[in-house]
Design brief:
This protein has about 475 residues and is an alpha+beta fold. About 45% of the residues lie in helices and about 15% in strands. It has 15 helices and 15 strands. The chain has helices at about 1-15, 70-80, 90-110, 115-135, 135-145, 150-175, 180-190, 215-235, 240-245, 270-275, 320-335, 345-350, 355, 380-385, 430-455, and strands at about 45, 50-55, 55-60, 65, 200, 200-210, 260, 285-290, 290-300, 305-315, 375, 400, 405-420, 420, 460. Helix 4 (about 115-135) crosses helix 6 and helix 7 packs across helix 15. It is globular and about 75 Å long.
């Protein structure tokens, strides 16, 4: 029962995260305002003689309210994202909304600040995402029944601010929650043997990467092009427009090259060094990173935070360079197959991929941060490349193109295969530690809710008073 209980709690914990990019907007009212129970539930006669329930307030949490229509929006958003709502009740959806409101309300009480600049940055990202999904921002405006893009932006800004407040509050609650090896051991011992989880088949994968060599002439062409763009900007052209037209960074080019960053933001060192060396309004000279060549324009500096725009252009790889790279990696493969060198040794001495060559080419799972990949959760591209490899077989040279258009050749091999099995403390310590930590985080959040619900003005009205909630929202 312990593991089942944890699994149920885990679902609630995951559900407490933002359902998707669109959260539910609720206006702010006074925490002491009296809400009559009939507001949300009063039916009126329709022209056909039926009953129509008027939308209204169904709950208050501190300075926030929840409307009956917010529950319907919740179901719509889950469906829009491809999720199933068949096992989610209106009471459960309301419970999720109440959690979000309490997080946001308490974030304000704890003086957690969400700046307008942060909201603007989130707004640009989300609007670009939505526009890519539906093809036209006006369709998004129409979906939310707003009369103009500006009205929608004002509406959406409040949604994003509440989302960010809730996220920051959740992070604050669990950021200091740590787990010791003894706690992990005790957690595992408490799970009955017949309830131990089953972990799916996994594998460990290694790769060798060879990058085509780019000629000095091709590099200079890119530098000259960026210098020409820089000259136009210095003479008055819009940097943002140039970024939309020419930048090859898919994460920022639709946004006019916009990024907001601090020293801790996980950008490559070369990029951060240039960004933090510039003054507001200054445009950098072209500089190189592993992604290609960049120019940066700093828009604002706020303490340790920099708002900037950048343009990325990568040199074009010639057919001759691709051919040379394929020949090189084919020679490496032949040496491994002929037992002249091991795969791990070849990765350490021949691979151009800095992230993996030091550990013999072994890949790290970006989701779990360990070296195992569960087959059912594996990236489809990687799975297709390794699924047919037998034993310690090495793939043929594979031409790979990343999301930025960069082309490389690689060899892949499976270094370890783990069959589906019942959890074993020694073999699966990392996964068991994750489960134990998640339980401790859930318990920390539950304790926080118990305390804050007691101290916060909360009112639930109408039929929702009959709901059974995971948290004590009704203060019984």
């Amino acid at each position: 029962m312990l593991l089942k209980k944890l699994q149920l709690k885990t679902i609630d914990f995951k559900f407490a995260l933002p359902i998707c990019f669109f959260l539910f907007f609720t206006p702010i009212i006074s925490a002491q305002e009296i809400i009559p129970d009939v507001v949300a539930q009063k039916p009126v006669e329709t022209p056909s003689g039926g009953k129509l329930k008027i939308d209204g307030i169904i709950a208050t949490v501190g300075d926030y309210i929840v409307l009956d229509s917010d529950i319907d929006k919740g179901f719509l958003e889950i469906t829009a994202q491809g999720g199933s709502i068949k096992d989610i009740t209106r009471c459960q959806m309301l419970g999720k909304l109440l959690e979000d409101k309490l997080y946001a309300h308490q974030a304000i009480q704890d003086s957690i600040i969400v700046s307008d600049a942060e909201v603007r940055g989130m707004m640009e990202d989300r609007l670009n995402y939505m526009t890519q999904q539906v093809g036209d921002i006006n369709k998004v405006v129409e979906y939310y029944k707003k009369s103009s893009v500006e009205e929608f932006k004002t509406y959406f800004a409040d949604i994003l601010k509440e989302q960010k407040l809730a996220s920051e509050m959740r992070d604050k609650i669990i950021k200091d929650v740590e787990i010791t090896p003894e706690e992990v051991r005790n957690f595992f011992k408490k799970i009955p043997k017949d309830e131990l989880p089953t972990f799916g088949a996994e594998m460990e994968v290694a790769q060798i990467v060879v990058e085509p060599k780019i000629s000095k002439e091709d590099k200079q062409k890119v530098i000259d092009r960026l210098n020409a763009i820089r000259k136009d900007v210095l003479e008055g052209s819009s940097f943002a427009t140039k970024a939309v037209l020419y930048s090859q960074d898919p994460g920022s080019s639709p946004n006019g090259g916009y990024y907001k960053m601090t020293r801790k933001t996980p950008f490559v060192k070369e990029f951060k060094d240039v960004a933090f060396s510039l003054q507001a309004g200054e445009v950098s000279e072209p500089f190189e990173t592993t992604f290609g060549y960049h120019i940066i324009m700093v828009e604002k500096i706020k303490g340790q935070e920099v708002e900037l725009r950048h343009i990325l252009i990568a040199p074009t790889v010639s057919e001759a360079a691709l051919k040379e790279a394929k020949e090189r990696i084919t020679n490496i493969r032949n040496k491994i197959v002929n037992k002249e060198i091991t795969f791990a040794e070849a990765a350490r001495t021949e691979s151009d991929e800095k992230e993996t060559r030091a550990n013999g080419g072994t890949l790290v799972n970006p989701t779990t941060q360990d070296t195992r990949f569960e087959l059912t959760k594996m990236d489809p591209t990687l799975y297709s490349q390794v699924s047919n490899l037998k034993g310690d077989e090495i793939s043929q040279p594979l031409l790979n193109t990343d999301d930025k258009g960069k082309k490389t050749y690689k060899l892949i091999t499976v270094t370890n295969r783990i069959d589906e099995h019942t959890a074993d403390y020694a073999k699966d310590y990392t996964k068991i530690k994750e489960l134990a930590l998640k339980e401790k985080q859930i318990n920390a959040i539950a304790k926080w809710f118990d305390t804050k619900i007691k101290d916060t003005y909360i009112k639930i009205i109408g039929e929702y008073k009959d709901c059974t909630f995971a948290n004590n929202w009704l203060k019984k």
